[in-house]
User: What shape does this take?
Amino acid sequence: MSSQLGKVVGLLLIERFGPVVEKVGTSLYQYGSSPLLHIKKRTDLPLSKVKESLTILIKYQLVTFTTNQNENIANYSLKSERVLLMLRYPKYINMIKKKFGDTSEMIIEELLQRSYITATEALLKVHERLTKNGDNVVSFSQLKNEFVSLVNAKYLIRLPVNEDTDKPVPKLVSNEKEMHILPPIDLNLIQKFKSAENVTFPDNDIYWQVNFDRFHQDMRDKIIVSAFTKKFDENAGELIKMLLQQMYIRTEPWVDVSNPIPILEIKDLARKQKSLGQLNTFFDQYVNIIEQDHSNLIRKAGEASGGSFQIYLKEAYTQFAWEIVEQSVMEKFDTKAARIFRLVKLKQYVEPDMIQRLAMIPAKEAKRLTYQLLEENFLQIQELRKAAVGGSGPMKSFTLFHIKLDLVVRMILELCYKTLFNVMTRRNHEKITNKRIIDKKQRVDTITLGMRSQGAEEDQLAEIEEMITPPEREILERIEKTMKKLNTVELEIDDTIFLLQIYLLCH
Assistant: This one.
């Protein structure tokens, strides 16, 4: 269990839900699956507070429960990786905004804020927000179409339901066939409800939640396409994007190796897009270059396949992990250490003398860097003993350096959690230290916004703005710059965590 991840989880829980919920969540993280009375005893909280905290955590699907040996009691477990996903909420919302527009963005935002909601309730909440903001109000018919689009694209799925209502501890199950089937949404009933009539909606007991796997699939595809675009050009990136799109027609999104994809289908798709003239002209050359690339993302599906290719996603994850590790070695040490690391990676098992010869680094320095990498766990050591010829005489020992990628990835993941905790702590420190001036700025902005909506003149608005002195403005600018930097670092760390987690899941 990662101690650094536990610290990050604690910070996220206290930021979102407060200290009481954080105390219950931290207890579950430290001690694992526990019944209610054990949690109460460890946290020293009133039973009512523990129940309330567990209710909140279960509502947001941060805690799961299973039956104890005594079937009348439930054991509760914290989903730490699910807590970490709260950092990605802005990414999810931004992805939907770019792909579907502002209205769909608001639907996803409502679901993330409430964890689950019925389709009718989602439409009513979004319509209310649009009306309150004074935007061009979208009709309920349009809102329904937006919701249907999100369900069809698998960004929304049904919430699991209780299989057996007779048992004291519910057992929640998902029906795969009904996961993406939309229940009837009666627009006439919604209009009657808006007219203050008492109505019962047909989907009152069918709740929807965000499908995080679908978002992660998009994030993964974006990273793969971006990698090939940076390495070659935009045409190579477009080719990879089309391959991935065709893969989903034949294969599940998270398999290690896809089913064969006929390259002629990709060629036909490229021809239909007029903006890809260069790709169409040099299509075969692009396919050959990507096939020969050391990432091994695509390979021919057998010699007699007739031009079909398979996508090896597991190979891509491994290459991404290697790139992150090599970059970490470069930043933590220097280019010479990175050269030694790459040499060991290439040879798999290397003797110290060979490293000094092949790395083209002075022997003393090569030895120092090698043992630094060993000390920091980027390299591992293995000793082999070989008996002398004839079965007698002294034993000869061989020392070989090698790399255990899984071990190094877990170590870097732990460093990412530590860095993330430091960034979040620093951001909270900035907020607490400058709380007075930040609150003053918010009050001034609220007054200005209210007066502007009432039609106040520019002179009056300028007088209100002058409540913040020039020295205070300088401090606010510094705070804003610092916050932007910290937020950017947080997002970049999360990208690295995402790639490393995918690698570990597939190995």
User: Anything to note?
Assistant: The longest strand covers residues 380-386. The longest helix spans residues 470-506. The chain has 23 helices and 13 strands.
